[in-house]
Amino acid sequence: MSFFIEEPDAYREFFFGQAKKENRHKNFSIMKTRRIFIKNTLGSIAALTFATEGFSCITKSGKKKDKLGVALVGLGYYSTDLLAPALQQTEHCYLAGIVTGSPEKAKRWQEQYKIPEKNYYDYASFDKIANNPDIDIVYIVLPPSMHKEYVIRAANAGKHVWCEKPMAMTVEECQAMIDACNKNKVKLSIGYRLHHEPNTQRIIQLRKEKKYGAIKTVSAIAGYVDNRTNHWKQTKALGGGVTYDMGVYPLNATRYVTGEEPVAVTAIASTTRPEIYKEVEETINFTLEFPGGTIATCESSFGKNMNRLEVTCDKGWYNMEPFSGYSGQNGKTSDGIILNTVIPNQQAKQMDDDALAILNNKPVIVPGEEGLKDIRVVEAIYKSVKEKERVTI
Ligand code: NAD
């Protein structure tokens, strides 16, 4: 068993089976005591205030709302196993609503999480969320091809938006999402949870401190064995392919490690199981060239369990293994520093950081522009694969 993967199967059972059982029992005493101050009668006034006055949310009692309501859109694996349980641990936001195309799923979630009927939407009724003062944030957890449409609809409904990685399929889509959020004066965060993770933050800090001199090489690999068939991850039109899914972890790591944008890429895609990966790549290998001279070699695969980041510098080195798991980040440096700070829940930390940014009207840690920068490189990776040559970015 690998503890490196981001996805279901053995990992989910091993790491989350027990936590899930415990959560079911203690679940919603928290919800029972929760008080949501904005009432329906003042909803539209509050929503207007929220959208136009620097994100302060004035309640009926005249107090600022201190805990924001989140609606999850798409109740698949990540929402079910990670985000909803994490939202039981957050301090500054809570699970207030759901958007799903499945009435059966909705019923289960409503019972489990005490979600009132008025906070349940399907994809057709979704836009009515604009009139719901319980919902401050809409979190898009759908296949990547659907991110653009739902981010824009959420922004047009006047809600702050969180969107899962990869941000979208193309730079053009990413830009349209950013523009819609700016136009509606709502904040957009991309779900790159590692930017909220303390050991990853320390790695970023090492570069800022220039502790080990210039960075010469970065190696980043992330993969897991996915034996599922007929999933959207194997369907090109839905945003499948390992580059979009896992490839953004090594790619994003090379960018936060160096603090630079790559200027060229050379990539090769391959597949060992064409019966499963018929129209998208199972494995991607890519080499990035950075303006400061750093060379980064990366690999992502749906056919291998691997997860490691290595950085070599003029005056030392550091690494982390795993670097992109939900927990267990474990790194060391050439002068003996150990990077293994433990936090209770990565997703809860991410959502609390993002909720606080909204409550305090501060910049978010991972804005849409950061997601767009990765997709710009993903486009270049696919171009390099297609043209079988080095592509400048
Ligand atoms: P999933 O397939 O388990 O869930 C997707 C959900 O979308 C399902 O509930 C499905 O019913 C719904 N859906 C609506 N329309 C659909 C359509 N036309 N085709 C397929 N599904 C449709 O996927 P997931 O693993 O939960 O991933 C969802 C998003 O979350 C993706 O963007 C993925 O990259 C991201 N994710 C992020 C992390 C992370 O660590 N940040 C981890 C896992 C997944």
What is the count of helical runs? 12
Instruction: Specify the CATH homologous superfamily of the largest domain.
Output: Dihydrodipicolinate Reductase, domain 2
Biggest sheet layout: 9 strands, mixed
Order of helices and strands: HHHEHEHEEHEHEHEHHEEEEEEEHHE
Structure summary, number of beta strands: 15
Highest CATH level, the class of the largest domain: Alpha Beta
Secondary structure layout plus pairing:
Elements: H1 10-26, H2 29-33, H3 40-52, E1 68-73, H4 77-86, E2 93-99, H5 103-113, E3 120-121, E4 137-140, H6 147-156, E5 160-163, H7 171-183, E6 188-190, H8 198-209, E7 215-225, H9 242-245, H10 248-258, E8 264-270, E9 283-289, E10 295-301, E11 303-313, E12 316-320, E13 331-333, E14 338-339, H11 346-359, H12 368-387, E15 391-392
Parallel strand pairs: 1-2, 1-4, 2-3, 4-5, 5-6, 7-10
Antiparallel strand pairs: 7-11, 8-9, 8-15, 9-10, 11-12, 12-13, 13-14
Helix pairs in contact: 6-7, 7-12
The protein binds nicotinamide-adenine-dinucleotide.
Outline the structure in words.
The protein has two domains: 160 residues, NAD(P)-binding Rossmann-like Domain (Rossmann fold, 3-Layer(aba) Sandwich); 170 residues, Dihydrodipicolinate Reductase, domain 2. It is built from twelve helices and 15 strands. The chain is of the alpha/beta class. The two termini are 38 Å apart. A hairpin with a 5-residue loop joins strand 9 and strand 10. 36% of the residues lie in helices and 21% in strands. The protein binds nicotinamide-adenine-dinucleotide. The site of nicotinamide-adenine-dinucleotide has 19 residues, from helix 4.
